[in-house]
Amino acid sequence: MSDSEDQTPRRYIQPPPSMAARAPPGPGAENQTATEGLGVSSILRRWKREDIMRKGGLALRGLASLFSLLAFIITASNEHGGGEDFHKYEEYRYLLAIAILSSLYTGIQAVRHVHQIFTGNRYLQQRTSALIDFCGDQVMAYLLISAASAAIPRTDNVRDDADDAFTDSSAAAIALAFLAFCSLALSAVISGYRLSTRSYI
């Protein structure tokens, strides 16, 4: 090979723009894509969790409303004449009053949340609504368990004298009030979690 050939300038071939565009991204781009994917998936999981909690709270209030209404109906119709009338016992009158109050509270709450889910309209601010849910569920759950606890000893005393339809109806009303308490207690747990984590936003 001659010296003239060695001195010939070399030409470097540049890749066409199409090939440069198809070049694989560097490791930084892959990390950014993975981070964005994780961020989107975490947001989707949070929305799904909030939707489950919202619908779960609605279902629990619906059950509490049903149990309270049944307890009210059974207690109000528990009249068999003589000494077997519910209004002659203070504990059963208290149970009836709390069952009515619980039916109204849970019914109104259930209707409000159904309207909010299907229309997206809110009657109150989000934090105010969350506080009402949390406090209301706790207060009503306490009243239900106190009414059921007060009626249990009275039912046992009456059952010592006569075990009949009156005591059976009283026991059924107490059991329904306890089920309503359990539903509202679980609803209060969900309300407290949403309030503490600001999941209502």
TrEMBL record:
One GO CC term, this protein: plasma membrane
Record localization: Cell membrane
Annotated region (Disordered), positions in chain: 1-35
Keyword Cell cycle: no
Primary site of residence: membrane
Family to which this protein belongs: Belongs to the Casparian strip membrane proteins (CASP) family.
The protein's assembly and partners: Homodimer and heterodimers.
The protein's name: CASP-like protein
Source species of the chain: Rhodamnia argentea
Lineage: Eukaryota, Viridiplantae, Streptophyta, Embryophyta, Tracheophyta
The encoding gene: LOC115745875
